[in-house]
Amino acid sequence: MPHKAGFVNIIGNPNVGKSTLMNAFVGERLSIITSKAQTTRHRILGIVNGEDFQVILSDTPGIIKPAYALQESMMDFVSSAFEDADVLLYMVEIGERELKDEAFFSKIKHSKIPVLVLLNKIDKANEELLSEALKHWQNKVPNAEIFAIAALENFGVKEVFNRIIELLPESPPFYPKDQLTDKPERFFVNEIIREKILLHYKKEIPYSVEVETEEFFEEEKIIRIRSVIFVERETQKGIIIGHKGKAIKRVGVEARQDLEKFFGKQVHLALVVKVNKNWRNNDRQLKRFGYN
């Protein structure tokens, strides 16, 4: 049997469940998940290997109208997803009517590669709503195949994955067969810490934060990690730390627990908070954090 391999890129508006689907496909928690928009900032690859296939999945940031340089860089990751895709997954949810960017939507409708529209969160809809949504998207994207799924419940995910494999071109694998992602270990440390900040802080704070892991030492029985949480203003630093350090302690405890599950080993995590003024609009700082 010939070997198949290719890039399958997932795009959509914020909060449609792209990261949940990615993790369901890969069987590992590679993409962080919260109810807040803009949880995903980078383009993350997850690699699924079979005997005769390699699916390289790409989770991209939710499509938004950029308000500052960081968000422009995030949308560049989405644009790049159109360039190398062998199959495009356009994810929507019940009640959604359009993509937030007309140019991206036009690319989807005129795509020369296979497009699968995944109608997510169908467990939240009745039969009438589902039927209406299916018709709407069949009319809106006539070049696409439509699948109704509930990614969080793992409903319909296997059917979509099987169809992806059918659509992949014949090709040798692009990555070693034991590789799970293109990102280094420190990236996942940063993301897990950032996820806890998204979960526990309100308003602008989570969007003003970037995390950088300065030290990652793996010993036989323990991994020792030192990570810096960067904020844009001194007042934000105080909020992150919290009264008597309680807020930062909660982030550290929860992140450490997740990191121990992720790495399958005991973790010692030290967190430091520093001010990096206006980093979201500073090209040099954005490059340092891997955005352009």
Low-confidence spans: pLDDT under 50, at least 5 residues? 32-37
Count of DSSP-assigned helices: 9
Tell me roughly what share of residues is in helical segments: 25-40%
Order of helices and strands: EHEEHEHEHEHHEEHHEH
Number of domains: 2
Mean pLDDT figure: 84
Q: Could you describe the largest sheet, including whether it forms a barrel?
A: 6 strands, mixed
Q: Tell me the strand percentage band.
A: 15-25%
What structural category characterises the helix and strand content? alpha/beta
Shape, principal axes of CA atoms: globular
Q: Give the name of the CATH superfamily of the largest domain.
A: P-loop containing nucleotide triphosphate hydrolases
Distance linking N and C termini: 40 Å
Question: What is the CATH-assigned architecture of the largest domain?
Answer: 3-Layer(aba) Sandwich
Q: Please compute the radius of gyration using only Cα atoms.
A: 20 Å
CATH first level of the largest domain: Alpha Beta
How is the largest sheet built, in terms of strand order? 2-3-1-4-5-6
Task: Tell how many strands the DSSP assignment holds.
Answer: 9
